[in-house]
Design brief:
heterodimer, A: alpha/beta, six-stranded mixed β-sheet, 7 helices, 10 strands, 34% helix, B: MetI-like fold, two-stranded antiparallel sheet, 2 strands, 1% strand, globular
């Protein structure tokens, strides 16, 4: 459903072009959980932003459902590392942002926000401000905000990196549960992470990016059975083999 | 505050040159004086006080709203376009540092010429002047507010497809609110300062009729009616305090919600002096409810589309009108050049020879006031750093002191001091001191408070004595705040020279040789174009270059050297 054809991206700094992504071609089909891993500064986040339509590629084409992507993809949604909630809106207000942008009637927006807040376990926190929530709850709100627009495809940029170990483990499980939930509209997930174990635990497929500039170094399926566990047979070997490709 | 910004070096110079040229073009002291002769003077009385207060408040509100609109436009344009920023930011910088009061006569003349010399033209001239004292820092606030929106927050809002008016309402405006509010308080303090100054000038030498607290004050003093003067002053102080308690304080508490770091660091300040809020939050809630229901009924989406269409339309109009506009600007510049040349054509009157000396004397007077202010403020701030209770009381004093316009005290101070202490020379230093000290105290106290407690404790644990801690930690840590306060204090005092070096009391003019006095006399006394233009030019060039060469560098140095990293 999402296809990159020979995508280049560079930023200019004081008149000099600095390449970030170099000749990236990639195809992401329906119903796949893809993780993009790589060292910091390899352009993972930039790749995700191009997929979302937040920034255009310098050259090359991005196709969504067979058509060239122009501007923000309204059939997609994104979750951020810093949660990126607006501190001056309540949890409910944050979740309704995308719904109002899509001109949903007030009643419908309210109903849908409540539904997805319930899904992520934030029932009863509608009127709270983000400043009053813990990190884990903030990310749940971020997740609810993304799910509420009922996207076909969900992008997540290091969604667990800002959380403590226990909270992130919990939330990881919940995201997997939500993903396997057929009632949710989300078909496809693309997640950026720098933790290889996380990728192997969650993804159907791992795309490895090298840095300076970002190129696809490997594209591997994860054949392990779900639900997975770090002690599963073959888990460590897969992690090690990905690790070698990055180094 | 001044910062390192990449922008063409010639731009501030060009800005100053254009300002001066336009001022010269419109200088017409004779006309202003001639028109003034036809005005019937009104005797001031107690009965006029409420009306005067109302007019002053109205003038302030009008110019504040205009400043806000302009600031949004300029700040937004600079924040979204790097190219616009390279032009707008240096111009804002110049606007902020130019001594605005010097341009007041020119402003009066422009508006009188445009609108025919009625009350409206005076109102507009004074509002324009107050506007130029209020808008620059607001524009910087908008710029900083939009620029400091975290990258991911902006991306999140964009990724949700939020656009147009909804984006303005949910992202851009809230992001600017803390800085905008903080700067609004500064702008109001600034505005009062200039409002009173304008009204005094208009009522004094020019003798126009512009009802307001400043003019009532000035006339009461000129007549020698000290009781009325004190009553006017009291009215002004009351208004300022009521605004502080009933408007700014609740707004400040409310605006904390709009910060990204919602940590409890501000809790201390909130608990420090909690004053009754007079049920204002309830009122705000009601108003918000009304606003919300209006907003829901109103065709917001269509309004947004209309606005966008207007924006596109005006962009197209700007493209079409670009050449005519440039042509008009070129003509204006040519006329301005002619006016400058005419103003500077010999023979020069004998006063021009004394202008450099006048400038030097003014500079020395400000320096004397600055040193005197530091002499009492630094020990007080250091004392406060060790006495939390004293700090609280002093903070309130400084806040109130800084929010009351010092220009209002000028006439009263003169009335009290004249014939008693050493004459006008001492009085003018005292006036400069009055205008200066609160900004310094306010900023220095803020600096002292920012010294982390654990850092101080660690030095005490090492066995350092109190005076050593002051010398090694507190004073260096305060340097950035001291420089910030100094910039504001010097700027205000340069501006007030025109009032502090030439005062009329009981029909007699008290004056000292200085650049402010020369400016004042040339505008309202002799009507000499050459002296007026030269002294204004000298003042503007001195202030702008002093800011660029001294304060900017000091600010950068001090911030690099003494910043406490958190």
């Amino acid at each position: 459903m999402l296809e990159f054809r020979r995508v280049y991206k560079s930023f200019t700094d004081r008149g000099r072009a600095i390449p970030v992504l170099d000749d990236v071609s990639l195809e992401i089909p329906d119903r796949q959980f893809v993780c993009i891993v790589g060292p910091s500064g390899c352009g993972k986040s930039t790749l995700l932003r191009i997929m979302m339509g937040l920034t255009p590629p310098t050259s090359g084409t991005v196709l969504y459902q067979g058509r060239a992507l122009e501007g923000v993809n309204l059939r997609a949604a994104m979750v951020f590392q810093s949660f990126a909630l607006l501190p001056w809106l309540t949890v409910q207000g944050n979740v309704e942002l995308g719904l109002h942008a899509r001109d949903l009637p007030e009643e419908e927006a309210r109903r849908r926000a409540a539904h997805y807040l319930d899904k992520v376990g934030l029932d009863g926190y509608e009127e709270a401000y983000p400043g009053e929530l813990s990190g884990g709850m903030k990310q749940r709100a971020g997740l609810a905000r993304a799910l509420a627009v009922e996207p076909d495809i969900l992008f997540m940029d290091e969604p667990f990196a800002g959380l403590d170990a226990l909270t992130s483990a919990n939330l990881r499980e919940e995201v997997l549960t939500l993903w396997s939930d057929r009632a949710l509209p989300v078909n496809t997930v693309v997640m950026v992470t720098h933790i290889i174990e996380e990728a192997v635990l969650m993804a159907d497929r791992v795309v490895v990016l090298t840095s300076h500039p970002g190129r696809i170094a490997a594209d591997l399926p994860v054949p392990l059975e779900r639900p997975r566990n770090k002690r599963d047979e073959g888990f460590d070997q897969l992690v090690d083999s990905i690790f070698e490709k990055i180094v | 505050m001044p910062e390192l910004r990449p922008s063409p070096r010639w731009l501030p110079i060009l800005g100053v040159a254009v300002l001066l040229a336009l001022a010269a073009l419109f200088q017409g002291p004779e006309r202003v004086l001639t028109l003034a002769r036809g005005v019937v003077r009104v005797e001031p009385s107690f009965r006029d006080l409420p009306a005067a207060a109302g007019w002053s408040l109205l003038r302030m509100t009008g110019s504040y709203l205009a400043s806000l609109l302009f600031a949004w436009g300029a700040g937004y344009a600079a924040a979204v376009s790097a190219r616009a920023a390279r032009v707008i930011l240096p111009l804002l910088d110049v606007g902020q540092s130019v001594p605005v009061l010097g341009f007041f006569p020119a402003a009066i003349f422009v508006f009188i010429n445009l609108l025919g010399g009625g009350r409206v033209s005076l109102e507009l001239a004074s509002m324009f002047l107050i506007f130029t004292s209020q808008t620059w820092n607001l524009a910087f606030a908008v710029y900083e507010g939009i620029r400091t929106i975290p990258f991911e927050t902006r991306a999140a809002v964009d990724s949700l497809g939020v656009k147009g008016f909804q984006r303005f309402r949910t992202l851009l405006l809230p992001a600017c609110i803390p800085a905008l509010l903080y700067n609004s308080i500064l702008s109001w303090a600034n505005g009062w300062y200039f409002l009173i100054a304008c009204e005094i000038i208009v009522a004094g030498p020019v003798a126009y009729d512009l009802p307001g607290l400043g003019s009532t004050l000035s006339r009461a003093i000129a007549k020698g009616d000290l009781r009325l003067a004190l009553a006017t002053l009291l009215t002004l102080v009351t208004i300022v305090l009521v605004l502080e308690i009933a408007v700014w304080r609740p707004l400040r508490t409310w605006s904390r919600r709009f910060r990204y770091d919602t940590a409890a660091e501000e809790a201390g300040e909130a608990a420090m002096f909690r004053l009754p809020d007079f049920g204002l939050p309830a009122l705000v809630r009601v108003l918000r409810g009304v606003a919300r229901s209006v907003l829901h009924r109103a065709p917001v989406v269509r309004l947004g589309q209309a606005l966008a269409a207007t924006g596109r339309g005006s962009a197209r109009a700007a493209r079409v009108l670009r050449w005519p506009a440039l042509l008009a600007l070129a003509v204006a510049l040519a006329l301005a050049t002619v006016a400058v040349v005419r103003a500077l054509a010999p023979p020069w009157p004998p006063e021009t020879a004394s202008l450099p000396l006048a400038l030097l004397l003014s500079f020395l007077r400000i320096t004397a006031a600055y040193v005197l202010a530091l002499l009492w403020i630094v020990p007080v701030a250091l004392w406060a750093s060790d006495h939390p209770r004293g700090m609280r009381a002093l903070s309130v004093v400084a806040q109130v002191g800084a929010s009351i316009p010092a220009t209002a005290f000028f006439p009263v101070l003169v009335a009290l001091l004249v014939d008693r202490f050493g004459g006008m020379e001492i009085i003018s230093v005292a006036l400069a001191l009055t205008g200066m000290q609160w900004y310094l105290l306010f900023n220095l106290l803020a600096g002292v408070q920012r010294v982390p407690g654990d850092l101080k404790e660690s030095l005490r644990a090492l066995g350092l004595k109190r005076s050593e801690i002051h010398r090694k930690l507190v004073i260096p840590a305060c340097m950035p705040s001291l420089v910030t306060g100094s910039v504001v204090a010097w700027g205000g005092t340069w501006n007030a020279l025109i009032l502090s070096e030439y005062v009329v009391y009981r029909g007699k003019a008290y004056e000292v040789l200085g650049i402010g006095q020369q400016l004042n006399r040339a505008t309202f006394g002799t009507g000499d174009r050459t002296v007026l233009f030269l002294s204004l030019a000298l003042l503007v060039v001195t202030v702008v270059s002093f800011n660029r060469l001294v304060w900017d560098r000091l600010y950068r140095y001090v911030h690099a050297r003494y910043r406490l990293e958190g």
